[in-house]
Structures are given as structure tokens and as C-alpha cells.
């Protein structure tokens, strides 16, 4: 490897190499220096934000020193790297995580305190990095943490959106979206103005002959947009390995910026061109589990894939290895179908630019890519219209046609005479207009396809990709059940519980091997331990109650049972089932005698989550929850027995407060719709029980923690089709209790009934696609069991402890191990001791 500093000068260089702080004094030196110089503040105008900024820059320096060493080490070692392609990385805050991962949070706490700041106040100044919608984006963030912690040479690639997921305000019971401009001051990113890639759009494909007389397809004309790299360091826990998350930002290419126009006085025109280029990375699309087919989104996808691949190919070429070695150096994981164009782009680079034969190139492509599917719901499966692709990426469309042709020829050989099969598996859907089915393209272009929980992976194989299992055989399809990082979701979010666990299992080693939690099982009947456990849960509930008071003005009793459902608002996740159940509870309480009421366990029903801005039904659900809250919370007759809360702007940092405070949380999707869910894992790991359907990872959580420790209810995935059928043919009788709930809504108990008529009708008259009415009765009965169980606190706490002790399987470290072994075939590269 070349070095820019000549040998004789290297010693001088090394002598001055930055070291990064280790002690409290050094931390204070660095922090104050940054506040005074990098930020130009002083003793007299240093607020908490400045303290946050200074401390972050001090930590960033440390991380970047390790980042440099890690990257050098990985380059020297020359072994295979993983590239995780995801349009979303829902990172949340970085400072707290950096402090804990490098093991210097106590140093920082003492250091800041001596300078006059409380560490919690400093940490809470940070704006969440919210480059994601929900589960898919947060999974990617957990995976980065695990890959670094386990010393895998791994990079994330994504877009540097100027605006992340919108901020949600609840105004008069309605969701209002506010743009999330998060880049005002972001100490965690490094602009790399020297790392740029020109990305082409539009234009046309023309045939040219080269010197050997070979006909080549050449993509010409169109417009060029420049991708600029921004890097964010990803520290591992208790390791110096610091990986990279590379985000691409778009700007007008210098060649493209029209100086002619500019000089001719068309100032506005030239500025408009520039703005158009910047639009590509301007905003994260706010849809979760919904495909909208917008041109700008396709532009984002190609821009990001092309820039990332150019970067990877450039890195590979420096090794001077033959192309056939590419899959031994590079594993690319596609997080859902969003990066599927990367498959086509790599094939294009190899055949058009590098001159490989089609089959050799395709072999390389397939061995490079793995595809993770995250949904089987039709409305979420990506399709792009052929005319749009033709216009934006004409060369790629031709390559897609060629991939399809060769694939169909292969299928036809294997299954002669099955014309239906050819139509079913074709990448091109013969609709008006024709559409490219991205899940099929991703499947054909990858060597492994995985789902994210056992039930989901089975559904992938028996529904949307059934024919492909027949064609490729079952080995191409596999399961990697999702997981979460215990560093953020236990240690960071719930430090007291983490400390209590460490005191019992002997050390913090469980944060790196979560199966060690099983040692807790010895303490299930230990009185003192249980008391401490309960105290911690109570303190976490007090903290959440305080947050609720500060943000909504509603006082909730921390002794009440906290019942929480926080996640994106979606009909399939069935927040409507939850709120209908709450209304039922309210009506029941109203009808009770004073004596009966005394026996009731007080409840706080807590909701939170964002609705996609264009998803009207989801917004109606939010409005119903808020309207019910208005009535119930102001009903003196009910008092503490029931409170209904909507927590505004649910995000990663709020999740860190909410998750540890739950007694019971709701994971109640229609069976077969939630691919995995990951908040279910977070809640159980924090000592909360869950009520849920037999869906996604709930099933495996049950397998691990035992049926006695979870409240399962509702119909099974295998029955969904028949149940829907019954609704369509009017063979369905509405439950009496549910009918009363609808009558209350229609009677105007929660305000203008007209606001809720479409929501009610979707369940009563329009087929009840998500089977709310089918599961209502079983849901209400199961909540009654929850009430009963909560009364026996001793037994309840035992269930919680047992559950936590059995959650080892759900660490994202286990996921990464499985991906590495089964799909990527990569080895870790630990730092030298
Ligand atoms: O991905 C999570 C799953 C969850 C699933 C979610 C998801 C999105 O957030 C967005 C699009 C999509 O296709 C799937 O809904 O069940 O836990 C991570 O795998």
C-alpha cells in the first residue's frame, strides 16, 4: 500500500499522531478546546447545546482515530468486506452510544459535572438521526452496531437526506407533519469532498462497434448529477473496530452546472438546475410498508446504488485482483428491494464498461448479492413502470429484459410446456403499463434470499416466491430471524436494569453474549432481587409519567398498569383494534358499581407512532385515539382507572424512554402480516410482558420464553384466507360487545361521528380486511387475563425475569453471525490486542 509521506519523515509524523483522550482531564481539555475554538464560544456563553457539541467533537476525534486505524487494517488484510445497502438507517442519537461503546461514559459524566453540566441534559440536546421510517431502518442500525462489535469489516451505504422522517405534532387531535431539518449542526459526519461520483440519468442507448468489431451498447446523453460522500463512524462495543456508514449527497455536477447560462444572465435557470440536482437526496420518503412508485424515489434508488457500486468497484480495482475474485472480496446485502437496481448496475459495469462476457459477469453478480425480504403484503411490494424505467434508465431496462429472457429460457428448459409458469415468474408483469417486479429481479440476481422470522420466511416460500422455490430448489431460500442490539436497547435505554443484571450474572459480558442472560433464571424466586427489579420498573414508569406530564399535561399514575403500543400507524398493525378495546373497557367501567371498580387494576393505555402523510385511514385512527383520550381523561367518574395517552413524535430516543417503562405492550397485527416486528423483542428484554397475535417473531419469542409468559390471542395465519372469504360473502356476525363500541362512536360519544365513519365501515361493511372483528372477542378476553395476572405482582415479576433470562436468541449479534456464515461467507477481523 502506497503512503504519501516518504519513509524518512514517517517517524516525525507518528510522533504527532492524534491519540484521543483517555482520562477525565484529557476529556475536559478536548471538550473545552472544542467549545472555545471549533465552536468559538466561551466560559460566558456555553449553554447545554454548546456543551453537547464540544463533548461530541471530543468523542468524534476519538472515534475517527480508531476509524482510520480500522480502515487501514481492513485494507491491509485484504479480506472480504460486507456492504449493507439500505435506503434507511434509523440511528437515533450518537453521543450516548459512543460513550458507552468506548467505555468512557463515567469519565464523561464526571468531566461534564465538574464543568457544570449534567450528562443527561447534555445527551438530550442531540437531534435524532432519523433517516428511516420504522422497523426496517432500525434493523439496519442494529446490524451496524453488531457488525462493528463483532469486528466484521462492514460498511453501510445510504443516502444523506437533508430531511429525515418528519416530526409529528398532534394539533387538536390530528397529526401535523413538520420537516425534520437535522443537519444544522451534525458533528458525527465527515464530508468527503474528494470522494465524488458522477451519476447519469435519462439519455439513450446507441450501438457502436469497437476495434474488434464487437457491437457495444453505449448509454449516451442525458444529465449528470454528482454524488458526494459523507462518512459517519460506527463504533463497536468494547472493541476499537470502528466501521463506516457512507451517505451520498447529491449536487449539480461541476461539468453540468451551466456556466453558459450563468454568463448569459440566466442566473435563475442555472440555480434551478442546481436545485433540481440537490432534490435527489433532499427528503426521505415517509412511507413504511407502502409502495408509491414515484419517479424521484426511483432516482434516489439509482443514484445511491450507482454511487455505492462505483465506490466498491474502485476499491476492488486497487487490489489488482481478477474480476472472478470479486465475490470473494465483496458481499452486498440488499435491505428489501429498494437497492435492487444495484444488481443491474453491476451487470452493466461488468459487460458495458469492463468488457466481460454476459455469463461471466452474471455469475459474479449473483454470487455477490443477497436479498432480504421484509414483507409479503401486496401493497408494499415494489414495482416500477417500464415506461418510467425506459425514460430514466434506458440501458438498465434493456439489461433487465436480457436478465429476464435468459431466466425464462432456463425455466422453460426445466419446465417445458408450462406457459402459465413463465407468465407468473416473469420479471415483467404484463399489465397496462407493464411493470418490473423488483422482488423477482432481486431473487433472480441473488444467491440467497431470506425472510426475517420463521413464519415470514415460510410465507415467502409458499406465497410470493413459491414458483421460485420450485425453480431454484429450497436451498436458495432461508430465514434469519431479526434481532436487536442489547447495547442500545438494554444497556443504554435501561442502565439500572443492565447494572442489576450484571451484578447477578457476574459481569457485563452478557452485552456481547446475550445468551448469558440465562443465568438470571436462578434468581426468579430471590426476594431481594425481585424487589430491586420492581423498583427499577417503577422508576422507569415514573420517568415516562413525567414525560407524559410535560408533553401532554395529563397526569398518569405510575402505579397503574402501563399498556403500550408504539410503532408506525398502519391498519395491519391494528391500532384500531387496541382503541376499540379501550372504548370497550371505558364502557365497561362506566357500567360498573363502585364495588366492582375497586377490584379493577388501573390502566394507562399509551399510543405512539407516525402515520404516512398520505395515509388517510391511519390518520383517522390517530384522531380516534386522541378523541377517546379527550373524553376518558376528563371523565372524573373514571379517574385513574383509565387514561388514554398519545405520545407525540415517536422516534428512537423516545423509544429509549418508553420501552423500559412498559408492563404490557401490544404486537397485535393480523396473523401473517407483520414480517417480524422488533419492538416486541425490545419490550420483553426490558422486563415487560407482551400481548400479541401468532405473527412474525411473536411466535419465536413464545418458543423461547414459554407460553405461560406471553398473552397470545386471535386467529392463525393459516385461517386468514377463509375468514376474509367469509366476510366477502356476508357470512359474519358482529360480536355484541364490538357492536356496542361502534354504537358509542356512532352516537357521538367521541365527537363528530362523521370523522370515524370510514374507519368503522371498513370493519363493519367493507370486508374487514384486517379481521378486527374476528379477533375482537379473543382480544378483550385476553386483556381480562392480563388484568388478573397483574394483580399477582409476585408472579408477574417472576414471569418478567424468566422472560428476560430467555431472550438471548434475539440479539442482533446472533443475526449477524447467521448472515456471515450462511450468506456472506466473511470472517471477522479483530484488532490486534
Ligand atoms: O421491517 C422490519 C420487520 C417488520 C416490517 C418492517 C418493514 C418496514 O419497516 C418497511 C418496509 C417493509 O417491507 C418492512 O414491517 O415486520 O420487523 C424489519 O425486518
SSE diagram, text form:
Elements: H1 10-15, H2 24-38, H3 48-77, E1 81-85, E2 89-92, H4 95-101, H5 105-114, H6 119-123, E3 129-131, H7 135-149, E4 154-159, E5 167-171, E6 174-178, E7 190-201, E8 204-209, E9 215-220, E10 223-235, E11 242-252, H8 259-263, H9 267-279, H10 295-318, H11 326-329, E12 330-335, H12 341-353, H13 358-368, E13 369-372, E14 383-385, H14 386-392, H15 394-414, H16 419-425, E15 428-429, E16 435-437, H17 438-444, E17 448-451, H18 454-462, H19 466-472, E18 477-479, H20 486-492, H21 495-505, H22 527-552, E19 561-566, H23 575-590, H24 594-598, E20 603-608, H25 616-633, E21 642-647, H26 652-658, E22 664-667, H27 679-685, E23 689-692, H28 698-705, E24 711-712, H29 720-728, H30 736-746, H31 757-764, H32 772-791, H33 793-805, H34 812-824
Parallel strand pairs: 1-4, 1-12, 4-11, 12-13, 13-17, 17-18, 19-20, 19-22, 20-21, 22-23, 23-24
Antiparallel strand pairs: 2-3, 5-6, 7-10, 8-9, 10-11, 14-16, 15-16
Helix pairs in contact: 2-3, 2-5, 4-20, 7-34, 10-12, 12-13, 12-15, 14-15, 23-25, 23-30, 23-32
The structure holds (1S)-1,5-anhydro-1-(2,5-dihydroxyphenyl)-D-glucitol.
Amino acid at each position: 500500500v502506497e503512503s504519501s509521506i516518504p519513509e524518512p519523515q514517517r517517524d516525525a509524523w507518528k510522533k504527532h499522531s492524534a491519540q484521543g483522550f483517555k482520562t477525565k482531564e484529557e476529556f475536559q481539555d478536548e471538550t473545552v478546546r472544542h467549545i472555545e475554538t471549533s465552536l468559538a464560544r466561551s466560559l460566558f456563553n456555553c449553554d447545554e447545546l454548546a456543551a453537547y457539541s464540544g463533548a461530541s467533537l471530543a468523542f468524534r476525534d476519538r472515534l475517527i482515530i480508531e476509524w482510520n486505524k480500522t480502515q487501514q487494517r481492513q485494507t491491509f488484510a485484504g479480506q472480504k468486506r460486507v456492504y449493507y445497502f439500505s435506503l434507511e438507517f434509523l440511528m437515533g442519537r450518537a453521543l450516548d452510544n459512543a460513550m458507552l461503546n468506548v467505555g468512557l461514559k463515567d469519565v464523561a459524566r464526571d468531566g461534564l459535572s465538574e464543568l457544570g453540566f449534567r450528562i443527561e441534559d447534555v445527551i438530550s440536546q442531540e437531534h435524532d438521526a432519523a433517516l428511516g421510517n420504522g422497523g426496517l431502518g432500525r434493523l439496519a442500525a442494529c446490524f451496524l452496531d453488531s457488525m462493528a462489535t463483532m469486528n466484521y469489516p462492514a460498511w453501510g451505504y445510504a443516502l444523506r437526506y437533508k430531511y429525515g422522517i418528519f416530526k409529528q405534532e398532534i394539533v387538536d387531535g390530528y397529526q401535523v407533519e413538520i420537516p425534520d431539518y437535522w443537519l444544522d449542526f451534525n458533528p458525527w459526519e465527515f464530508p468527503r469532498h474528494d470522494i465524488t461520483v458522477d451519476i447519469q440519468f435519462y439519455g439513450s442507448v446507441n450501438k457502436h462497434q469497437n476495434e474488434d468489431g464487437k457491437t457495444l451498447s453505449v448509454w449516451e446523453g442525458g444529465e449528470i448529477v454528482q454524488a458526494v460522500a459523507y462518512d459517519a463512524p460506527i463504533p463497536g462495543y468494547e472493541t476499537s473496530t470502528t466501521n463506516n456508514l457512507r451517505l451520498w449527497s447529491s449536487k449539480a455536477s461541476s461539468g453540468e452546472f451551466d456556466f453558459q447560462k450563468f454568463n448569459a444572465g440566466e442566473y435563475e435557470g442555472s440555480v434551478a438546475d442546481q436545485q433540481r440536482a440537490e432534490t435527489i437526496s433532499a427528503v426521505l420518503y415517509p412511507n413504511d410498508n407502502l409502495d408509491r412508485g414515484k419517479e424521484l424515489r426511483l432516482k434516489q434508488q439509482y443514484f445511491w446504488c450507482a454511487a455505492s457500486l462505483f465506490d466498491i468497484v474502485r476499491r476492488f480495482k486497487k487490489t489488482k485482483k481478477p474480476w472472478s475474485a470479486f465475490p470473494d472480496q465483496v458481499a452486498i446485502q440488499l435491505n428489501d428491494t429498494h437497492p435492487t437496481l444495484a444488481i443491474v448496475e453491476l451487470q452493466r459495469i461488468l459487460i458495458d464498461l469492463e468488457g466481460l462476457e454476459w455469463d461471466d459477469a452474471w455469475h459474479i453478480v449473483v454470487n455477490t448479492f443477497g436479498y432480504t425480504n421484509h414483507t409479503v403484503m401486496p401493497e408494499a411490494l415494489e414495482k416500477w413502470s417500464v415506461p418510467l424505467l425506459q425514460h430514466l434508465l434506458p440501458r438498465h431496462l434493456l439489461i433487465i429484459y436480457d436478465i429476464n429472457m435468459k431466466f425464462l429460457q432456463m425455466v422453460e428448459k426445466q419446465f417445458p410446456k408450462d406457459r402459465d409458469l413463465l407468465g407468473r415468474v416473469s420479471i415483467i408483469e404484463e399489465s397496462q403499463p407493464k411493470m418490473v417486479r423488483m422482488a423477482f429481479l432481486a431473487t433472480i440476481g441473488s444467491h440467497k434470499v431470506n425472510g426475517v422470522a420463521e413464519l415470514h420466511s415460510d410465507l415467502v416460500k409458499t406465497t410470493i416466491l413459491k414458483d421460485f422455490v420450485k425453480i431454484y430448489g429450497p436451498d436458495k431460500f432461508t430465514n434469519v430471524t431479526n434481532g436487536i442490539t442489547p447495547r442500545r436497547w438494554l444497556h443504554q435505554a435501561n442502565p439500572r436494569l443492565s447494572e442489576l443484571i450484571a451484578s447477578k450474572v457476574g459481569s457485563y459480558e452478557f452485552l456481547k453474549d446475550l445468551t448469558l442472560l440465562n443465568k438470571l433464571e436462578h434468581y426468579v424466586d430471590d426476594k431481594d432481587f425481585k424487589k430491586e427489579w420492581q423498583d427499577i420498573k417503577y422508576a422507569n414508569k415514573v420517568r415516562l409519567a413525567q414525560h407524559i406530564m410535560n408533553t401532554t399535561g395529563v397526569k398518569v399514575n405510575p402505579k397503574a398498569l402501563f399498556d403500550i403500543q408504539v410503532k408506525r400507524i398502519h391498519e395491519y398493525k391494528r391500532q384500531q383494534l387496541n382503541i376499540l378495546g379501550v372504548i370497550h373497557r371505558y364502557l365497561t367501567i362506566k357500567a360498573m358499581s363502585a364495588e366492582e371498580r375497586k377490584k379493577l387494576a388501573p390502566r394507562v393505555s399509551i399510543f405512539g407512532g407516525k402515520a404516512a402523510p398520505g395515509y388517510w385511514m391511519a390518520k383517522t385512527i390517530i384522531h380516534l385515539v386522541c378523541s377517546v383520550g379527550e373524553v376518558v381523561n376528563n371523565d372524573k367518574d373514571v379517574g385513574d382507572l383509565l387514561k388514554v395517552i398519545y405520545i407525540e413524535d415517536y422516534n428512537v430516543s423516545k423509544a429509549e424512554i418508553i420501552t423500559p417503562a412498559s408492563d404490557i405492550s401490544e404486537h397485535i397485527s393480523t396473523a401473517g402480516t407483520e414480517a417480524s416486528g422488533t419492538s416486541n423483542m425490545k419490550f420483553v428484554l426490558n422486563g415487560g410482558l407482551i400481548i400479541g397475535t401468532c405473527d412474525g417473531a411473536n411466535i419465536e419469542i413464545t418458543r423461547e420464553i414459554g407460553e405461560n409468559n406471553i398473552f397470545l390471542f386471535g386467529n392463525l395465519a393459516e385461517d386468514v384466507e377463509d375468514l376474509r372469504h367469509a366476510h366477502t360473502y356476508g357470512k359474519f356476525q358482529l360480536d355484541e360487545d364490538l357492536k356496542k363500541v361502534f354504537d358509542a362512536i356512532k352516537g357521538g360519544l367521541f365527537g363528530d361521528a362523521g370523522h370515524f365513519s370510514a374507519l368503522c365501515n371498513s370493519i363493519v361493511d367493507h370486508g374487514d380486511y384486517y379481521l378486527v372483528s374476528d379477533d375482537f372477542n379473543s382480544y378483550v378476553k385476553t386483556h381480562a387475563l392480563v388484568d388478573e395476572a397483574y394483580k399477582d405482582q409476585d408472579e408477574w415479576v417472576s414471569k418478567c425475569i424468566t422472560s428476560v433470562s430467555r431472550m438471548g436468541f434475539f440479539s442482533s449479534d446472533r443475526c449477524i453471525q447467521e448472515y456471515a456464515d450462511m450468506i456472506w461467507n466473511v470472517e471477522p477481523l479483530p484488532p490486534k490486542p
